[in-house]
């Protein structure tokens, strides 16, 4: 059996989707299946540690979302025929797909942002991609949704039959994210950064309005006014669409000296950043899964998060929730969890237990089973 795996749009393994692919590759057993990776030429070594024995075939010499879409539409069908795959897996099907595939195709969908927000927000997806995505998703033989929320959206917004969608949640790496001993040190050193504790953490790309940084900055100001606590706000993530709006909001805040932007933060150092936080806030207007929630909970850090998208499904009863459109309520949850130490401790305990329900081993097992079943049809 011969399986192709598309690494386009997986961000060289550095984003949440890239982490997903990396974790799956690490768990592919040495069986009779012959897996081949293909993608950008500069990605030829991005997955060599996770999959040292897999062949990587570089494709497409042009960069950008539109280039990916055009290559998949015009070049992928012939490429797949030449490779003679029994099936092809698209780990980021919501970002890039062929219009049709000569072999059975399986795609993982992590979010449906293409249907969220204003036309202006959607324009960043690329014109060709916006045109072909709905039909491309419907043409997949099997679709993997990372949450029940995504499954419902795929059925409602893309018109995909329920029988063709499988829900396979993401996992958590317990060797990296785990409760660490709390010491009295006031500084957390993570080269090349130093973070003064206590701090509220939000780890997400700077994207406006979907990631909701502006309301979090406002809520942080309300929190500071009410409590006069020494907390700082750490916003860890690379600039994306509308980052200037977020930075302008921080610059206009009375507490701008307590707001810290890290820029792109190394994935390998994220566990230490989470472990050093006093609380983690996840104010997103939309999340297809919400990895930040699990990473915080597994690290033994209490979570306040938006009642939006898949976040309640992922966090369960282990987080304090707020309306993402209400900065006052957001601030209220931050005050509650920092001022009431009983609630603080209970949130930590509940979060650790909640995170145990998610496993990369289970995710990889179920995903590979779906791929193999589809290839054998």
Textual characterization of the structure:
- The chain has 377 residues and is α/β, with parallel strands linked by helices.
- The chain folds into 2 domains: 2-171 and 359-375, Glycogen Phosphorylase B (Rossmann fold, 3-Layer(aba) Sandwich), CATH 3.40.50.2000; 187-355, Rossmann fold (3-Layer(aba) Sandwich).
- It is built from 14 helices and 15 strands.
- It has helices spanning 16-26, 65-74, 76-83, 119-122, 127-139, 148-157, 213-227, 243-252, 270-276, 291-298, 311-315, 327-339, 341-355, 360-375, and strands spanning 2-6, 34-39, 55-58, 87-90, 105-109, 142-145, 165-167, 187-190, 193-196, 199-203, 232-236, 259-263, 279-282, 303-306, 320-322.
- The strands form 3 sheets. It has a 7-stranded parallel β-sheet with strand order 3-2-1-4-5-6-7. It has a 6-stranded parallel β-sheet with strand order 12-11-10-13-14-15, with helices on both faces.
- Helix 2 packs across helix 5, helix 7 (213-227) runs parallel beside helix 8 and helix 12 (327-339) packs across helix 13 (341-355).
- It is elongated, with a radius of gyration of 21 Å.
- The protein starts with a strand and ends with a helix.
- The model is unreliable at 118-125 (pLDDT under 50).
Give a short overview.
The chain has 377 residues and is α/β, with parallel strands linked by helices. It is built from 14 helices and 15 strands.
């Amino acid at each position: 059996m011969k399986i192709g795996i598309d690494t386009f749009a997986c961000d060289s393994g550095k984003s949440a989707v890239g982490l997903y692919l990396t974790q799956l590759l690490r768990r592919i057993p040495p069986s009779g299946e012959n897996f081949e990776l293909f993608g950008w030429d500069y990605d030829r070594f991005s997955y060599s540690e996770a999959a040292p024995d897999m062949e990587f075939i570089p494709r497409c010499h042009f960069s950008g979302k539109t280039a990916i879409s055009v290559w998949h539409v015009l070049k992928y069908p012939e490429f797949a025929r030449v490779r003679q795959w029994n099936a092809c897996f698209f780990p980021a099907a919501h970002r890039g797909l062929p219009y049709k595939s000569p072999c059975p195709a399986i795609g993982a969908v992590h979010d449906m942002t293409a249907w969220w927000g204003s036309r202006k927000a959607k324009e960043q997806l690329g014109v060709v991609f916006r045109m072909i995505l709905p039909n491309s998703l419907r043409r997949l033989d099997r679709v993997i949704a990372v949450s029940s929320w995504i499954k419902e959206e795929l059925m409602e917004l893309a018109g995909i039959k329920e029988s063709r969608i499988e829900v396979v949640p993401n996992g958590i790496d317990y060797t990296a994210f785990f409760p660490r001993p709390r010491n009295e040190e006031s500084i957390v050193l993570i080269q090349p950064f130093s973070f003064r504790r206590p701090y509220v953490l939000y780890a997400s790309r700077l994207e406006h309005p979907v990631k909701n940084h502006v309301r979090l900055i406002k809520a942080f100001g309300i929190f500071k006014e009410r409590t006069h606590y020494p907390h700082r706000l750490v916003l860890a993530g690379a600039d994306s669409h509308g980052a200037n709006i977020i930075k302008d909001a921080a610059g206009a805040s009375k507490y701008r000296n307590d707001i810290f932007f890290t820029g792109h933060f190394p994935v390998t150092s994220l566990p230490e950043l989470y472990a050093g936080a006093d609380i983690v806030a996840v104010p997103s207007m939309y999340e297809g899964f919400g990895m930040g929630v699990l990473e915080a909970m597994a690290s033994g850090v209490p979570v306040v998060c938006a009642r939006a998208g898949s976040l309640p499904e992922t966090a369960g009863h282990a987080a304090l929730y707020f309306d993402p459109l209400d900065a006052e309520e957001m601030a209220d949850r931050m005050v509650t969890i920092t001022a009431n130490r009983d609630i603080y401790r209970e949130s930590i305990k509940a979060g650790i237990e909640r995170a145990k329900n998610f496993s990369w081993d289970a995710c990889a097992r179920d995903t590979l089973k779906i791929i193999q079943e589809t290839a054998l049809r």
